[in-house]
Amino acid sequence: MTGALVYLNGKDNPAAMLSMLSMLPPELASGLMLWSLGEAAALPSVFARRVEFANPPPYLAEVYLSELEKLTREFGSRYIFFANSFAGNELAPRLAARTGRSCLLDIHGLSLEGGRLTLTRDAYNSNMEAVYTLPEENGVFSLDAGRRAPGEAAGLRLPLITNPLLIKRKFPPSPPPSWFLTEVIETGGDNRQLEEADFVIVGGQGMGNADNFALLEELGRIWEAQVGASRPAAANGWLNMDRLVGQSGVKLSARLCLSVGVSGAAPFLNGIQGCETHIAVNNDKDAPVFAAADLGLAADGPELIRTLLALIAGEKKT
Ligand SMILES: Cc1cc2nc3c(=O)[nH]c(=O)nc-3n(C[C@H](O)[C@H](O)[C@H](O)COP(=O)(O)OP(=O)(O)OC[C@H]3O[C@@H](n4cnc5c(N)ncnc54)[C@H](O)[C@@H]3O)c2cc1C
């Protein structure tokens, strides 16, 4: 069984790969295997085996996955590492699911203790660092090489291999998959507007559903306010995750924050403490959010928003 397999996409640049390799503990070096598209001559000889595919077809996850799965089973690789490129982060979880392993993406630190891998990655919008120890001795990961200082890449801890085994393979002709990715649509990603807004309306789980949340957005458009969400509201998909307000998301600095249907948990309040004035709406008069508000209104949130929208529409008519 080989220790680890490293996947190199033709588009991963060798410097990033080097920095990624410098993360691997030397204990993983025995049997380290490289699976590369085209030649990977620029990389140091740290691989006991190199499998090179001379004729890689254009990237299609399904086609690449079936080859990766075959190799994983054939060579019995325990750990499989990808760069956290678009392809790496797409292939890693899917390969993990196919081979019944754990998967973690965007790892920026790893060590091997007592045969168990300990992995570190950012969590909650980089506000926390999470450390994972794997119960099983296998897994599929993507490594965040970009997090390392360029100098660190030079500190390769892996021993050099003098006679690596070079295995040349050809991609087998594969029938076109019945579906594939044709377009990647970026959703949002710019939360500066929220961070810098003067007026923010934040909806919580108490808004009840996506349709009610759309009402908040409508009010936001009319009042020229940015709209944010508590964690459950964002997790429900009522608003994009980049609109999450709180410890794990955006910290507001608004002059006015109106929260609707938010309970007032500490991680949430952490995100609004920079606001000058906080008005809270909650249908539970004992909700903790009121203790942290300058003005509180015990009322049904969605109903209040609907009434406000109806009043505004009425005003426009007259
Ligand atoms: C490490 C960690 C990080 C976290 N980071 C964040 C974070 O960044 N942001 C965040 O928000 N949370 C975060 N959380 C989760 C946080 O602890 C709370 O679970 C979360 O804030 C609760 O969201 P909520 O108030 O929308 O939902 P709930 O706690 O479910 O509260 C809903 C509220 O709506 C009220 N309500 C119900 N119906 C209505 C209605 N019709 N009209 C008016 N009010 C109504 C209820 O009385 C209740 O008070 C984090 C937790 C952990 C452990």
What report would you give on this structure?
The chain is of the alpha/beta class and 318 residues long. The chain has two domains: 4-169, 3-Layer(aba) Sandwich (Rossmann fold); 192-317, TPP-binding domain (Rossmann fold). The chain has eight helices and 14 strands. It has helices at residues 14-21, 61-75, 86-99, 192-196, 210-223, 231-235, 266-272, 301-317; strands at residues 4-8, 33-37, 49-53, 79-83, 103-113, 116-123, 128-133, 139-143, 165-169, 199-203, 226-229, 256-260, 277-282, 295-298. A nine-stranded mixed β-sheet has the order 7-6-5-8-4-1-2-3-9, sandwiched between helices. Helix 5 (210-223) crosses helix 8 (301-317). The N and C termini lie far apart (78 Å). Residues 124, 204-206, 208, 230-233, 244-249, 261-263, 265, 267-268, 271, 281-284, 287, 300-302 line the site of flavin-adenine dinucleotide.
Q: Percent helix among the residues?
A: 25-40%
Rg calc: 25 Å
Largest beta-sheet details: 9 strands, mixed
Helix/strand structural class: alpha/beta
Fraction of residues in β-strands: 15-25%
Bound molecules: flavin-adenine dinucleotide
Question: How many strand units?
Answer: 14
Write the H/E string, N to C: EHEEHEHEEEEEHEHEHEHEEH
Top-tier CATH class of the largest domain: Alpha Beta
Tell the overall outline.
Answer: elongated
**How far is it from the N-terminal to the C-terminal residue, by CA?**
78 Å
